[in-house]
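User: Can you write out an input/output pair for a complex, sequences first and structure second?

Assistant: Here is one pair. Inputs:
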Amino acid sequence: MLVQRLGNRFTQALRESSDFRGDLSIVVDPSSVVEVARYLRDEEGFDYFLYATAVDWPARDPRFTVVWEVRSLANKTRIRIKTTAAMPEPHVPTMTEVWPAANWHERETWDLLGIKFDGHPDLRRLLMPQSWEGHPLRKDYVSFGEPVIFSDQKLEGLEPDAIRG
Amino acid sequence: MRSVAETRVVQEPFGPGPAQEPFGPGPAQEPFGPEHEPPTDWIELNMGPQHPSTHGVLRVRLKLDGEIVRDADADIGYLHTGFEKSFEEKTYTQGITFSDRMDYLAPPINNVGFVMSVEKLIGVEVPARAQAIRVMMMELARIASHELWLGTAGLDLGVYSGFFYAWRDRELVLDLNESYSGVRMMTSFTRVGGVAWDLPEGWIEQLQRFIDVMPGRIDDFEAMLTDNPIWHQRLQGIGALSAQEAITTGVTGPMLRASGVDYDVRKAFPYCGYEQYDFQVPLGVNGDCYDRYRVRVQEMRESLKILQQVVDTLPAGPWITSDRKVALPPRSELSKSMESVIHHFRLVSEGFKGPVGDVYAFVESPRGELGFYLVSDGTNKPYRMKVRPPSFCNLQPLKKLVQGVLLADVIAIMGSMDFILGDVDR
């Protein structure tokens, strides 16, 4: 069993594992997530990177769950690696040195959720304009809340809420 | 080279200096070609966002040494519409209409991928007839998407007549879409637990005519291109990825298979009953643009084989689950059963709830593995919906592929990737 082998090898780092609807997930301490990833790639054959993302849980501490999912093409198995990141500056190590394909996925996660990936070679915004402020996929980022100002309105003296369309 | 959008000589190429745009956190990094100090006669060329070969709105910043591309940086996001955020605000059933607007050239496949993630989360069985209808719609979408790719990628390289043939044939698929769902492109035909409607009368006959006519049409195409020396010169040996590189860079779908990696979700992890149908996974050898072309043409033939098998074995029976907690009751029950009225009201007004958990469901789209990572907090809406778009993964190695090639080959390489910017940007 993969989880048992992981548990034996990473007794401290592996916090929990779950098997929900056949999807295997492990929660790993952020400090050793790269080490676990390297083991998964080199020893267990997880060679194909699927995606990276994060989930925002405002009520939790640490607030963010960062997720990477990889597949072994030969064994036809998948594993989801999760770790956590706390406010105010959520950051986790990058996976780009283990799976180079994580590059854009992590850039997107930085862009949309504001997770910094330490050691990422090119951590710029990807989908939003470079000058954008905020991270749209955070739960406290209100969609459809952009201020709209019509030409006959004056900007001065208006509270931002009053001009929201 | 036609349609050069904007050229300028780089005055002070890559010195540290003040960063022009804020690039992410930390110290502003040199965005572009950090390794070397290039000669000052390199020019920076903006390809796009309005370039015809970008098939959408993509901007590529190229660094050119004469005609040779030294570096490239893809600037995406022009079609970013926040679908992932929108999913969080709609119920599972309402989310279906978002899914087909992402990859707008294969909407049925997005529909199926989306509802498969919800079905996996709540654990609902899909009847065999619904599975068969899904397979037919998906394979039609695959053919239509590859046809459109053939037409437009050929057009980029000067195959003008192919464009008209391709769009004529794609029109047949759109007609089939229309007679089934009422809509030519954004079908939104799936529902959690099945499909929205049964097949209309005469649809199978219409599909059979399509299956009969298409092999000849594909032959016409191949006669025009496969052994065409100009087509060979433009595509062979261009943009090659070895099998190992293809896996490392994370490309998927025909790009992965053109490099010889035998991975197709329909074979590796069969869904919707694909295990019942006999078909091959076409593989390339060299991983260049020409192999990608061959793989896609062969895939259309395999899709036709699958379609014929579905038509021959189409099961009868219900087309949506009888689980009233997720699927609307039939219209006829509403006038007879109070319980059905209550179910109907609950489903329409607030939808159904999913258990707490997260699942990843994936399908084979014309561009590769399309995945939906769904996180549920137990309410009637997705808490988080991450889409793994195949075009995004295929576009990522652009920089690696175009380094050292001629500028004209960039068009061929980008054409061979078959990315859809709606899918890349979401």
